[in-house]
Amino acid sequence: LPPSPAPTPKPPPPLPGVAAPPQSIWNMVDPARVNNRQILRSIFFLPGAANDYKQGWAVGDDSTLRASTDGGANWALKTNNLPAGIRLTDVVFTTASNGYVAGAAGKVFKTTDGGGVWTDVSLPVGGPINVNNLLVPSDQIAMLSNSAGGVSRTENLNGAATHWTTMRTNT
Question: What are phi and psi of 141, to 5 degrees?
Answer without folding.
Answer: -110, 135
